[in-house]
Amino acid sequence: QLQASGGGLVQTGGSLRLSCACSSHSFYNYNMGWFRQPPGKEREFVAAISRSGESTYYADSVKGRFTASRDNNRRTLWLQLNSLKPEDTAVYYCALSRVPQFRSDYLAPTFFANWGQGTQVTVSS
């Protein structure tokens, strides 16, 4: 139902734009999230965006560098990654929130579902 794409290999300081295509016609009805799983580590929250796209949350480690956006008509979610660092290397996933409220206490992976395949981002030093 969700398919992330757009990852690749970039140098430190480079940029990438990740996309997440949703096959569900109810895409507009879900708050959405981006997560990542670095090698050998657990999946972690990166960003979230409300149903309307007007509100966002970001992990402190990416704030000011990453930007989440969405187009409900195109059923697509994006994550713009700028000023990339080697520690951003991970598999990135998009997911939909199982919780209708858009609050900072509902950003853990356990509140999200329909993970789909991720996309690999590798940042070389």
Quick rundown:
The chain is mostly beta strands and 125 residues long. The chain has strands at 2-5, 8-11, 16-22, 32-37, 44-49, 56-58, 66-71, 76-81, 90-97, 112-113, 119-124.
Describe the structure.
This protein is mostly beta strands. The radius of gyration is 13 Å and the shape is globular. The model has no long low-confidence stretch (mean pLDDT 96). The chain contains no helices and 11 strands. Helix content is 0%, strand content 46%. Strand 7 (66-71) and strand 8 form a beta hairpin. The strands form 2 sheets. Strands 2, 4, 5, 6, 9, 10 and 11 form a 7-stranded mixed β-sheet that branches. A 4-stranded antiparallel β-sheet has the order 1-3-8-7, with no helix packed on it.
